[in-house]
Amino acid sequence: xxxxxxxxxxxxxxxxxxxxxxxxxxxxxxxxxxxxxxxxxxxxxxxxxxxxxxxxxxxxxxxxxxxxxxxxxxxxxxxxxxxxxxxxxxxxxxxxxxxxxxxxxxx
Length: 107
Description:
Layout: H1 9-18, E1 27-29, H2 32-40, E2 45-48, E3 59-61, E4 63-65, H3 89-98, E5 102-103
Parallel strand pairs: 1-2, 2-4
Antiparallel strand pairs: 3-5
């Protein structure tokens, strides 16, 4: 790869290698640059907050939360799970199916 995030090159290359469209996938990112790269490639993105970007402005994700270790604190909320349960592939699929953008400023 020649270009680093927020350039979408890495996502575009992966989509080509996997022979899938961007809306058939979901990215898991923790930084504004990563979110920008995914969005520029038209890939829906789930954001897990990291210590490095805890207070960074994040906009345009389909879900934002504190980490995959727990359903507590996610927006939108994890469907069909206890708050202390981990985020699962089923949760990612549910958020993907809803496909609404969220930010830390909404709801």
